[in-house]
Amino acid sequence: MALSTSIGAPTAVQQEIARLVCLRDVQAAMEWFRSHEPELRDWQMEVATIPAPPFGEGPRAEWLRSRFCELGLEDVQVDSVGNVLAARLGADRNQKLVAVTAHIDTVFAGGTPLNVRREGDRLCGAGISDNGAGIVGLLALASALRSAKVRLSAGLLFIGNVGEEGEGDLRGMRHIFCESSWKDCIGPTVVLDGAAIDTVVTQALGSRRFQVTIQGPGGHSWSDFGAPNPIVVLSRAIARFSRTELPAEPKISANVGVISGGTSVNSIPESAGMRVDIRSASHEEMERLERALREAVAEAAAEYPKRARNGCKGISSEIQLIGCRPAAELDPNARILQVIRAVDAHLGNHARPHRASTDANIPLSLGREAISIGAGGSGGGAHTLQEWYNPAERDLGLKRVLLTVLALAGVK
Ligand SMILES: [Zn+2]
């Protein structure tokens, strides 16, 4: 089902979009995107060259803080967990703020060659689209509003958030919505993630991630032969876990993404470990699969005594929760959904509702209105060193962001 063609968007919202696009300042803001594309590309290349591994976003945050200052935003700050925040004040101080956010971290570990470069029309490099495109979307929106002097009713809160990817576990968004002084000032949230404009994430995919560690006495492969081997135990646990039956509906996935352990071919390892990712929209299915993982590890470990015959230690196992993202869904009657549908209908953009794990998981799980959308252009190879971004027609995506934010904030 295409969002823009589903049963008509409420007339009031459609009328508001039609009114907005006729305003001279809004037209000027929309025009800004096309005429400033070279500047947007420069920003994107520049930000992508600054490494931002999980838990190492500091230098990129500092870059974004400087850009926010240059763009004349207010209250520019880096908070205690590393998020970069900046406000654009609205005329009505009693109205809740519209949050517009993009994650600034990448999946790439520190020291990874990001190899940012141009190849023809494409910008290439690790993280160039995810989330170079989203970060540039924040800057483009702030710049266009400033240049066109658009007068908003509600204020905007721009947020470059940390820890969206992997083990970051949405810590930046969690902090903003659960702990920060902004948490009660925010109304709807628009998340900018990647490029694509053919989807609207309205459903938050939940996930749980585990570090499983098996430990044993270790020893020499010949003289200590017979001592329990953690790699063997881990392998048996994986074999058991992978036989767990999974339903087709609701969809659930399980992935053993990393295994580690051992020191040399002629040593019995002292430890072995794996990282497991479980995802579903169903809380119950995730619970069931977590139990299956725990049972598989316990049963594999139980094949060996806790204490080996010679008195040295036997096998022990530990399962640590290293990530937990809540599953949630946007209320089908939410105003933010009516707005994006009306904007898509106006722009002739066909977008389908989508379920994914994004920054929107946190506000959605708290019952707040939030969507995650792309910031325009196209991209591919996300989370690989072959990632690319093509800015052709980026302005369509940015107009979509602009009109959505304006309709949510109100224009005087
Ligand atoms: Zn992303």
Task: Please characterize this protein's 3D structure.
The protein has 412 residues and is α+β, with helices and mostly antiparallel strands. It contains eleven helices and 19 strands. The chain has helices spanning 11-22, 24-35, 37-48, 58-70, 132-148, 171-178, 230-242, 283-302, 335-347, 361-365, 394-409; strands spanning 74-78, 84-88, 97-103, 117-119, 122-124, 156-161, 186-192, 199-204, 206-215, 219-220, 252-261, 267-268, 271-280, 316-325, 328-329, 352-356, 370-373, 378-380, 388-390. Strands 1-2-6-3-7-17 form a six-stranded mixed β-sheet, sandwiched between helices. A hairpin with a 7-residue loop joins strand 18 and strand 19 (388-390). Helix 2 packs across helix 5. The chain is elongated and about 85 Å long. The relative contact order is 0.20. Residues 1-6 have low confidence and may be disordered. Bound molecules: zinc ion. Zinc ion binds at residues 103, 130-131, 164, 193-194.
